[in-house]
TrEMBL record:
Keywords: Hydrolase, Metal-binding, Zinc. Its cofactor is Zn(2+). It catalyses: 1D-myo-inositol 2-acetamido-2-deoxy-alpha-D-glucopyranoside + H2O = 1D-myo-inositol 2-amino-2-deoxy-alpha-D-glucopyranoside + acetate. The gene is mshB. Catalyzes the deacetylation of 1D-myo-inositol 2-acetamido-2-deoxy-alpha-D-glucopyranoside (GlcNAc-Ins) in the mycothiol biosynthesis pathway. GO terms for biological process: mycothiol biosynthetic process. It comes from Streptomyces xanthii. Belongs to the MshB deacetylase family. Pfam families: PIG-L (PF02585). This is 1D-myo-inositol 2-acetamido-2-deoxy-alpha-D-glucopyranoside deacetylase. Its EC number is 3.5.1.103.
Amino acid sequence: MTELPARRLLLVHAHPDDESINNGATMAKYAAEGAHVTLVTCTLGEEGEVIPADLAHLAPDREDLLGPHRIGELAAAMKELGVTDHRFLGGPGRYRDSGMMGAEQNERPGSFWSADLDEAAAHLVAVVREIRPQVLVTYDPDGGYGHPDHIQAHRVAQRAAELAAEPAFRRDLGEPHTIEKIYWNRVPRTVVEDRFRRLAETLDATPFTVAAVVADVPGVTDDERITTEIDGRPYVDRKAAAMRAHATQVDVTADGTVFALSNDLAQPLFDIEYYELVRGEPGSAREKDLFEGVNA
Ligand SMILES: [Zn+2]
C-alpha cells in the first residue's frame, strides 16, 4: 500500500451535490489540513431535475445525459474543495439514481434502490480496506429525508463498515479494517429554525421569492443528539463554490449564504456542519473535530 496521511476520512453519498451541500466545509477543512479525504458517490444522479433552461435537454426524459454531465460537475466541485480522491461506487454508472420514493424508477434494473446490499457493500469494503479510514460520514437510517438512494447509501455504508472488519469476508478485497468512528449528517432543529427566521427577514435581498421550511432540510434532529460541530466558516466560500459547480442542481446566491434546489425554495447555506457520533467514543462533550480521540 502506498503511504497515506495519518488522518483518513471517508464520506459516502447518494448523488453528486450531496457531499458539497452536507459536508463541503468539512471536506475542504480536512483536505486543507492534509488529511486524506475520500468521497464515494453511489449514483450519477441521472434522475435529477435540471435547473438551467439551456441544459434541460440532458434530462432523463429527453437525452438522458445528466449522469455523464454530473460526473463533470462533481469533478469541478472536488477541485473547489481540494479533494482529489473521489470515486463512484462500483465505478461510474454501476448504480443508477432511483428517483424519488414511489417512482417507477425505484425498481428499474440497475437502480441503486434495487441493488443487492452485500454486493453493493463489497465495492465499498474494497475502498475501506485500501484507504483504512478512522472516520466514516454518511446519512441516518432515513437517509436524512427519505430518498431511496440516501436510505440505500446509509445501508451500504453501515454494512460495508461491518464487513470490512470481518476477517472471514472476501480477503481478496484487502486486509480487515475497523473504522473507529461513524458519524451521521445532522442539523440541530433550533439552529435550522433560527436560520429560517433570519432568512425570512432577508429574503427580499435574494433572487428567490419563497423560502423552504424546516421540514425540507435533511437530517434535522433534536439538539441533544448532536455530538460534533465543525466550524466551517474559514471554508464556507469553498463550500459555496463547490455547490455552484453543481449548476444543474443548485442555485447559490452571490454572497454564498442562501441556495435553492430545483424547487426554487430558498434555504440557508450552513457554515457550521453538524454530526451525530454513532460508533466510537466522543473525544469531548461537544466535539470540534471528527478525529478527536482517534489513534492516528
Ligand atoms: Zn441526493
